[in-house]
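Tokens for chain A. Residues wanted.
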């Protein structure tokens, strides 16, 4: 009897049971590529701070400098509601139910890391998301 295996199976089940997330890495990667293309308006394969801010503005349908959860969800339609819900909570740094420009500036700095050059490349976005996967408890699957 392999006790290590049994303990491993039990603990991964327990983690799964606790996690409300049912989506997979593949789904998130698809979402990520799509989002990168949406943000990269001049198609030069990097996202500038300006493009990042514009993306924020596009989501703000009523133009009150606040992207509400409704506006965010309307923009990020799809089967990824659980993920988007986590994302919104993560992006909303001061927890006021509004994504504002300071929230996005903070986020831009968080993503722009390797190298830190005021531009976001796809691999920086991937790195950033892979850290988020862990925080959100996303598991690898089909
Ligand atoms: Ca660009
Ligand atoms: Ca708004
Ligand atoms: Ca960069």
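Reply:
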């Amino acid at each position: 009897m392999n006790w290590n295996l049994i303990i491993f199976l039990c603990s991964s089940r327990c983690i799964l049971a606790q996690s409300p997330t049912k989506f997979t890495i593949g789904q998130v990667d698809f979402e990520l590529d799509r989002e990168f293309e949406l943000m990269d308006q001049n198609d030069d394969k990097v996202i500038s701070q300006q493009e990042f801010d514009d993306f924020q503005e596009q989501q703000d349908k009523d133009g009150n400098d606040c992207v509400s959860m409704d506006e965010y969800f309307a923009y990020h339609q799809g089967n990824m509601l659980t993920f988007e819900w986590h994302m919104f909570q993560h992006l909303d740094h001061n927890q006021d139910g509004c994504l504002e420009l300071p929230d996005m500036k903070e986020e831009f700095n968080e993503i722009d890391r390797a190298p830190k050059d005021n531009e976001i490349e796809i691999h920086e976005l991937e790195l950033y998301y892979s850290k988020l996967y862990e925080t959100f408890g996303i598991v690898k699957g089909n």
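The longest strand covers residues 46-48. Residues 3-18 form the longest helix (16 residues).
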